[in-house]
Fold this protein.
Amino acid sequence: MKDNVQGGALTETTLLILLALFKPNHGYGIMQFIEERTDKRVSLGPGTLYGAINTLSKKNWIVPCGEDDSRKKQFIITELGKKQVIKEKKRLEDLSMLVELALGGEYDHENY
């Protein structure tokens, strides 16, 4: 899972996983969240998901939570992870504004 952290860009997969973890969630729950929120446009396999979970854990963007004896290990986003989501939101808003300008729309400076 490659994210351009210096440039601020997250992969769509990374962003979706982080969004799924604003509430405690387990692997299958994360996959369901992503499929539902993207109208099945994005569907993660277990290998992709658990590789991403390991990477996000190493970055301290998510942490395990809940009961350790549960068969379904749950995770939740950290404050550092939330900061990454906020940065990505801003980056996407800026990009959207550039697209709007390129398409001839007017940019509403008061709402950005």
Observations:
- The helical segments are 12-20, 27-37, 46-58, 79-102.
- The first helix runs from residue 12 to 20.
- The radius of gyration is 16 Å.
- The longest strand covers residues 62-65.
